[in-house]
Specification:
The chain is an alpha/beta fold. The chain has 2 domains: 377 residues, no CATH class; 75 residues, no CATH class. The chain contains 8 helices and 22 strands. The strands form 2 sheets. Strands 1, 4, 5, 7, 8, 10, 11, 13, 15, 17, 19 and 21 form a 12-stranded mixed sheet that branches. A hairpin with a 2-residue loop joins strand 2 and strand 3. The two termini are 42 Å apart.
Length: 457
């Protein structure tokens, strides 16, 4: 970790309390072991291959032409939005308020002022990667919705993360002298009692090969009786590492809905912990992933019940093709006193090629008796009965498989808690399936042309 120093963390700026927080996180990080495949929570992953010495905190690059093009595409895809927040390598660049009530605060760490304890209230502690983010995030995106305020459109946050091609590291593809760029986005969403809001986070980088490390941390807090809908989309390049952490808490009678979708990256890890902390609260978790080439997609979830009469419902669906791999590991935890809990956990995986592999590990940790908890998981190829049904009606075998896989993903995509994101999710799935299946080239080309047209404005 020669590039990650206390002096570098201290030079990031911000209020005095944030500087103290970064320094404390760095001291804790220095005393902590890095994640290892020997730990259950990192089992089945390539985490031992992560060499932090090859990376360095990004020094704040401009958005650039590729980033501007991507941002324009997001603007075209999500025309109905309350605000657009642009972030480059964790540094807030711009906030465009288009439909926000004046009482809603959206901005950087200055929004918190002297409210030192707000950051880290939902995610206290954490492993070495969380501490790495604590020590090196240059800013914080804050979305603060006061009590009884309703947002009619989503707040959209675009994180553009710098990557570097192997050419910068010389012919042997080693890291440049100062290391491959590492980005540490940080987001905090807080809804007051009785409020309602939607937030979309998009983590993106240059398409194609480009080395980089992205470690985002997001904290979500839904106050009593509030309704929070959150969706995250990851579309980094093929050589980047993405290690994200979402921590969420729902108060009394609150409803919290999350959706994460991972398509890019060499190793894409998404961990979502949702705590039903108030009586009558409800959490809903949705996740989707699609692996091609040699990608690894890793989804971890925790449905944590700490209060009576709480509910949680999880659905995670993904597919792997080529030699890609996926891991799903989820835990339903019912603490003592959380009586009359209802919790459901479902994971479905399609394995599209012989060289691909999927692991599914559902878990239960129940400390009460008066509860209802269930889990289910499936791993397998395309259903032969479905294939036969379509082929018996005159649909060619290749096209039948395409339709089945598209329908498999459409089922989860249309469950996004932010409906305006659904068209872009569908397009991302279809374009990536070109690499996984012998897709209809005319249809794929049409989708690609539509995407290029939207990105060009």
């Amino acid at each position: 970790m020669s590039s990650f120093t206390v002096d570098r963390a201290g030079a990031l700026g911000g209020p005095a309390w944030l500087k103290r927080r970064r320094t404390g996180a760095f001291e804790e990080l220095a005393a902590m072991p890095m994640p290892s495949e020997k730990e259950e929570v990192w089992r089945y992953t390539p985490i031992d291959e992560l060499a932090l010495d090859e990376y360095a905190p990004s020094d704040g690059q401009p958005l650039g032409p590729l980033g501007s093009t991507f941002l324009n595409a997001v603007v075209a895809d999500l025309p109905e939005r309350a605000a657009l927040v642009t972030v480059v390598d964790g540094r807030l660049v711009a906030v465009e308020r288009t439909g926000l009530p004046a009482s809603v605060r959206v901005g950087g760490v200055d929004v918190l002022g002297d409210e030192e304890g707000a950051l880290g209230r939902v995610l206290a502690g954490g492993d070495a990667l969380v501490r790495l983010n604590d020590a090196f995030h240059p800013d914080v995106v804050i979305v603060d919705v006061p009590a009884r305020v309703v947002l009619d459109a989503p707040v959209v946050v675009v994180h553009w993360c710098t990557t570097a091609s192997a050419a910068h590291g010389g012919p042997d593809s080693t890291a440049p002298t100062d290391g491959w760029p590492a980005s540490f986005p940080r987001t905090m969403v807080r809804l007051g009692a009785g409020s309602s809001g939607q937030v979309v986070e998009i983590v993106a980088g240059a398409p194609g090969a480009g080395h980089g490390l992205v470690v985002p941390v997001t904290e979500l807090s839904a106050g009593d009786g509030s309704h929070l809908s959150y969706a995250a989309l990851q579309v980094l390049g093929t050589d980047a590492w993405h290690l994200s952490r979402v921590a969420a808490v729902a108060g009394r009678d609150a409803t919290l809905r999350t959706f994460t979708a991972g398509f890019g990256g060499a190793y894409d890890r998404s961990r979502t912990d949702a705590l039903a902390d108030g009586t009558g609260s409800s959490t809903e978790l949705r996740s989707a992933y699609l692996g091609t080439g040699s990608q690894v997609h890793d989804v971890r979830t925790l449905q944590d019940h700490a209060a009576p009469r709480t509910t949680s419902d999880l659905l995670c669906k993904g597919a792997v093709a080529g030699t890609s791999r996926s891991v799903y590991s989820g835990l339903i935890r019912v603490r003592r006193g959380a009586v009359r809990t209802n919790a459901f956990q479902t994971n479905h995986n399609l394995v599209l090629d012989r060289g691909a592999h999927a692991d599914s590990v559902p878990n239960l940790d129940i400390e009460e008796n008066d509860v209802r908890c269930s889990h289910a998981s499936t791993v397998g190829p395309v259903d032969e009965d479905q294939r036969y049904y379509l082929e018996s009606r005159g649909i060619p075998p290749t096209r039948a498989e395409q339709l089945i896989v598209l329908g498999f993903f459409d089922d989860i995509v249309q469950r996004s808690p932010v409906p305006t994101l659904v068209p872009r999710l569908r397009r991302e799935v279809r374009l990536r399936l070109v690499d996984a299946l012998v897709m209809d080239l005319e249809e794929a080309d049409r989708d690609r042309a539509e995407k290029e047209a939207s990105e060009s404005g």
